[in-house]
Amino acid sequence: MLRIWLVSLIVQTRSCFAADFPWPAAEFRGVWVATVSNIDWPSSSHLSTHQQKLELGAIVDKFKSLNFNAIVFQVRTSGDALYNSSLEPWSTFLTGTQGHAPSPFYDPLEYLIGKAHAAGLEVHAWFNPYRARAGSTSRSGLAPNHMANRFPSHAHAYGTNLWMDPGSSEVQDHIVNVYIDVAKRYDVDGLHMDDYFYPYPVSGQDFPDTSTYHVYQNSGGKLAKADWRRSNVDTMINRLNREIHAVKPYLKFGISPFGIWKPGHPSGINGLSAYDSLYADAKLWMDRQWLDYIAPQLYWRIDPPAQSYPALLDWWCQQSTHGRHVYTGNAASNAVTKPDWSVQELLNQIQISRNKRNELSLGNIQYSAKYFMHNDKGISTNILSLYKSPVMTPPMPWLNVPVPDMPQVTGTGSSLSWAGDSTGHTYRVVVYRLYADIWEITSFLDAHTTSTTLAEGEYAVKAVNRAGMESNATIVHIKNGAFNIIG
């Protein structure tokens, strides 16, 4: 009897302090799924609807199994749409002909959101803003409602691509409308912009925006051309931030700029200047709090001093003076395809990012999905050594979304249930299990799910809002068919 009493006392004492055991550190574990040129999905523009769905489902299943928690899905490669849009034509990368809808009809973005959310993964819709056509400077073959045909005087051949003029107010308005349309109609978790602002420079060519600049000057504008170009991009970023959050305050707005703001920042860094060549002043955007996260593309190795991964990451973290998150963009592609790289290099980079958690380095986004789908050079197998169990994406308290109430759990034996949240503040319910004095996530449940069945053990049930803010936990102990709430 004494032994039984002591065991019971130990369990009760442990349970009293269960909520004090460490919770898993939140970390953004994202992957870019590129659709331009069929890089990641669909594998061909001639697949059937059924085949496309199978491939999307396989992507979700793979990254859930690797304990990722976010898919950054390219929905607009070059004035096109991989979703059902009244503003822009269906992408040629989806159906082989721009403007042709999938047949039988389905909406890839809607389909992905359903699959990913059921698996506990966020979906961030990724847009390329100004590129009008990749690999061709011609408007021939573009659908009538393509932006290059709607605004032909602002569509310019530059290098091997067709590009829209960021200085055109018509182009700016159209791009903002495209973003807001997706924000309104789709249950995405975030909206994402990549590194293409003004195009990467082509030797011997200046971007042909002289006429737009003259219009600006004739209206009384005094900025030098380079400053005017930066101002055009700044205006776009500021508008997107304000208008996206006006539609849905919880939406996460992120940008993945080129990894070097300016050479010499930090000291010793050389390379292309995003500030001077792409007219992208990401430092200003962070200073003004015009984004929720930044994902600088640090596609260099750790050691070379001219583009040092840790030195650049330090610099980007130092720019986050208002608490905005830094999710490093990593080149998984380099780890697989470049002889002077290795998968271990990538793992080391992720660990370096983790070591700077106190400096708001809170995750990574991998480019791109196909290398993990194929497990090239064992990259998927190896990343599980770091991504050992699921975690939440980092919370964003500044989004000012109400924190949900703690779930009021009841149960019989191993079956738990709780009331649905009538306030609408709950996005999902997360169930943790206590393993060796550490909590680990066992399941993500959507807000409509109000019950679950669990094996014996000690569990915590929390409600989470769209900004990643968690409620207090209800602690539950299940043993020998008995159910007890202990905290």
Automatic annotation (TrEMBL):
Keyword Kinase carried by entry: no
Record's keyword annotation contains Glycoprotein: no
Signal sequence, renumbered to the chain: 1-18
Top-level taxon: Eukaryota
InterPro entries per record: Divisome_Glycosyl_Hydrolase (IPR052177), GH (IPR017853), GHL10 (IPR003790)
Glycosyl hydrolase-like domain: residues covered: 27-334
Keywords per UniProt: Signal
Pfam families with a match to the protein in the record: GHL10 (PF02638)
PANTHER family, A to Z: GLYCOSYL HYDROLASE DIGH
Protein name: Glycosyl hydrolase-like 10 domain-containing protein
Species of origin: Dreissena polymorpha
